[in-house]
Amino acid sequence: MSTTEQPLRGLLTRDPSVVAAGAGIFGDALRQQAVPVTDVEWRPPMDGTSEALARVLADPRLTEANAEALRRITAAEAELVRIAPASEVLGLQRGEFLHSGPPLTWERASGPMRGALLGAMLFEGLASTAEEAEQKLAGPDISLAPCHSRGAVGPMAGVISPSMWVFELRDPVHGNVSHCSLNEGLGKVLRYGAYSEEVITRLEWMRDVLGPVLAGAVERHGPVDIRAYLPQMLQMGDEGHNRNRSATLMFLRDLLPHIVAQGDRDPADIAEVCRFVGANDHFALNLVMPACKLAMAAAKDIPGSSVVVTMARNGTDFGIQLAGTGDEWFTAPANTPEGLFLGSYGPEDANPDIGDSAITETAGMGGFVMAAAPAIVRLVGGNVDFALTTTRTMYEITLGEHPSLQVPILEFRGAPIAIDATAVARTGVLPQINTGMAGRVAGTGQVGAGLVTPPAEVFVDALRSLADRVPTRD
Amino acid sequence: MTDSVEIRRGVYHDSVTLMQVSQQVRTAPGVHEALIGMGTELNLGLMREVGFQVPDEAGPNDLVIALRGEDEAALAAGQDKLVAVLAELHERSRATGSTTEVAPRTIGSAARRAPGGIALISTPGQYAVLDALDAVNAGLSVMLFSDNVPLADEVALKDAAAAKDVLVMGPDCGTAVVGGAALGFANVVRPGRIGLVAASGTGAQQVMALLDLAGEGISHCLGLGGRDLSSDVGGRSARQALRALAADESTAHVVIVSKPAAEEVVTELEQLAAELGVPVSWATLGRGLPDLTAAVEQTLTAVGAQAPTWPSWVPVEPRPSSAAAGGRSLRGLYCGGTLADEAMILAEEALGPISSNIPLRGAPQVSGHDTLTGHVVIDFGDDELTQGRAHPMIDPSLRLERIRQQGEDPTCGVLLLDLVLGHGAHQDPAGELAEAVSAARTAATGRGGHLPVVVALVGTEADPQGLQECARMLSTAGAHVFTSNAQAVRAALSHLGTPAPADPSTTTPTQHETGRTDR
């Protein structure tokens, strides 16, 4: 606690300034006296949160716990240390699959999630037809677990199977490790629920060529500082969720000499790897996501903290986790994104929100820094004014500003970082998420991209659980 | 007569704004009722009470618009008026800031933008503690105007504040002056050497205004909320306030103003003041204790100043025999709770128990909605009469109606009123009050009677409404106007022909006998 020379932090010696919440007449009366007044645009808290909020806000641990969470999140670093099969680095066994979002059963899985799991079964050789795969997935021999349960993250369906190669990132400050699959590109791809032969063939090439070539390059390069890409992305007009063009090219620039220097490789393979990475504007999403996951992992398990450390969706449910509530998930039916559609697809074709990629928003990227990426607003159906307002609004539900993730157009103000569940409940302002849209029907692939928010209920439940953990007063 | 009830989702305005909107919509031609409020249980109850059919799905985050008019055309006129009033509000909010600027949504957020200072909180009581905790966690001192905050929350809040070295003034704190800034209801007083610690809003205003009239100034007035000096709260904020004023270079003397306080808390504060070496005088209401005016006079003596003759405006008029007047009962209609308390303490010595909606111990409790019989003092600022409407210092309509009624009542022997000026209060309170006083007196004359009216006018010349001008309007309407509430009460008693009680300021001033909690 700070000690001040003057009692009451100098209340009686300082020139008065007032923050006013509630009836407008009192603020007006102060303005008439030439006292500086900041009016709060007050709203009643979310229904059903008052009691939990009162307990959480009165928890004497709260302020310091949240300050500690903010310190750890902003101090976290992220280095790409190796690329290897999931069976090796995640210990994933045959018949085990990871998926995005909170825990899920086959029965409750949405179309795109089913499509991705079917594709993974075919890819792993666990079934030779989709029908057979479906039967087995409904049976007892296949096990599903959230990526987050292993410290991993996966975009959209987020399915990781043992033979898929994954990035391994490490936070040298806090010692955490995180994993993410390699990005397949756009269109008919597994993560959007497509599982045609074309999809499986690409996955096989990624397993046999892309993975090993990139792994060799990383080995030659040594740890790649992924964390350093993030501030640069914001300066180059990317927000790290729906737009990853700059980081993809930075990554390729850093690894290129080490890719081509692998003389024992077929030059055609080398060329195809370079073409594939360079042509896929989203390739770096799968590096940004685990980097963001490491930042949030640093804040896990801080008793009393109301910081949101996970936001993730499995296509059926939206789930969050708080720093102060351990591994407990708080879930509710996922909303369906609104935005723009590819080709002749329309809103009726879109599946509810899916993917672990909201980890970018959780860590202050994506929708939270939309102001830094005005080029994105058309893709997600907004305008520049909207992007600026969105980022400014996110400061209302976050604890602080990231010292190095800066938004140039806001005079290099730090990104809004560390979502405070109490602020969400008190303001009713929900985190803004930029996202892709998967087709509702298994096998469709991507149908569009847009904007979505979490269902409010997850914050209500999370706060109640956090309130239950507040030690009772003597 | 026809009704309409409309629910609008996703629209929020604060309750005071909506009460003002309701008032304006009521002025539309043919509109008889306009209840426009957020769909809180309280507001929905009020709407149902007057017969509106409110759908069950209305919730606290919905704006509910209930209109009653003579016919469809009247309802349409009400709707038009509402649209116009809301549009004006919208224009006013748009006038601040560019399109992408975002106003702070929480006190914590506002504090991050401009650190330091005070949070002035007047959000609905059931949420106010959340905002206050947010402010305390952000390192701000709090002026908590909201009422209906549970006692346990107040204690927890004040403990949290002490741990962070910030002050919680309130809940239910109506008045504070910090570093010259008047928060809530407060008079414009000259800066000076006397600090106030006040567990009483209008009591503090009376003390401040009298000190100002005596030429003395205020360093700070730290409000505490009416419960701070109770046994339950134990003077938590008072101790912090006293320490801060003791350390404040501009404060030479402290006056502790309070409604009836717990004996052990008073003793503790006296000991603390002695330890801190800060001279303290008490303006604490209670039977047998000095009235506020007497306490101010003692304070003036203590700082080596002289008490003036407190200004009053008494019209010269022939005094009819009390037999002709007929009425024998005292009717006190107050906006200030502490001033009402003071009136009852002084009046019961002469008249015996005074009925009230906030009765002293041993006196009958009546509802402020009842027809008044016998000696009665009503506090229009009490929760019972502010449900669903603003404080009578902002919205005086309920009291004005009651004042007019007294003119018709032959049992009313004298009408005793207060009028508190200052920031936050109604902009033209004297004009409306003078009109009601005039009407009541005319009605009394009309029925062959006579109605003396006495007003305690609490304010200063620097107040936005102006002391002299308000006094002139009231005395023109025939009221006897006093700047001291105690003097006003004595004048009212003399109109009843009863001996005024002795001025207790001649008795030992600092003695606090037990049983001072008079309610």
UniProtKB/TrEMBL annotation, chain A:
Gene3D superfamilies: conserved protein of unknown function from Enterococcus faecalis V583, Enterococcus faecalis V583 domain, v583 domain like. InterPro entries: AllG-like, OXTCase_su_AllG_h-dom. It comes from the Bacteria. This is DUF1116 domain-containing protein.
